Amino acid sequence: MSGQKKPEIGLGLWKIPNEQCAEVVYNAIKVGYRHLDSACDYGNEVEVGQGIAKAIADGLCTREDLYIVSKLWNTYHSEEHVLPALEKTLQDLGLDYLDSYLIHFPIAQPFVPFETRYPPEWIFDPEAASPEMKTAPVPLFETWRAMEHLVELGLAKTIGVCNYNTGLLSDLMSYAKIKPTDLQIESHPYLTQERLIRHANNYGLSVTAFSPLGALSYFELDMADELESVLTQPVVVSIAESLGKTPAQVVLRWGIQRGCSLISKSTKTERLTENLEALNFELSEQAMSDISGLNKNRRFNDPGDFCESAFDKFYPIYD
Fold this sequence. Notes:
Layout lengths: L8 E4 L5 H14 L3 E3 L7 H13 L9 E6 L6 H15 L4 E6 L36 H13 L3 E7 L3 H10 L6 E5 L7 H9 L3 E5 L23 H10 L3 H11 L3 E4 L4 H8 L8 H8 L10 H9 L8
Helix pairs in contact: 1-2, 2-3, 3-4, 7-8
């Protein structure tokens, strides 16, 4: 087990352009970030590693100061592919181990060799006459067994899952010899996921919320409308004004006070610094309740929606 406690706010590395990524990681570490959330699928782990290496070389931190997370992509779910997938991630990041390695989605897809395409993304063969997403008959039990071996080898201090629902989580806990330590899910005031978070906590898992500001991460992907921004909700704006904070800081603080760690993303150093300020104040019980009252079960990152429209495959994982 890792002796490193997961920091409450981490830098999410999804959608950070390769040409900016090393500098963003370096600057984030410089202003105080110690939790970095990466993934094979983000396609920028080489640059993430460059930022980490420079920060360590310049004395901003040691490797042991950092809590570094990455994720197993869908095409590597078969038992024989899990270890090579992690070794590739470690090579790209320039690291000997991860603090946490997560199953990215409970979705198995056919294996794509590294030399064919990396990261492989969702489409099995982009050159096909009708490119589409394909699935593979790999049970999650098999994938988890291989994940446990990574802990035994010392390559991952802990292991966990992303995008699992309550049923999958209970099933995992019934067969896991090495228990997951973390569940990473989409959660924000429009998708509070209170029952799932409580269920995970009852099993002793910590919960990390990605997209903690909701729609903000999805405007550029046309997966959300700007009118859906929680940051313009009158209740959030009012609370922010009363505290002298920004709406983003208030929403992040709400997530932290719910007991979650948060993955926030920005390429701007001033915004990264601003987000960390969410650690330094508290919301009243009434403010917490008012923000939670915004819930409408609005999920922005839903394979049941985007797989069909983008990859010609209807594949829901949430009811």
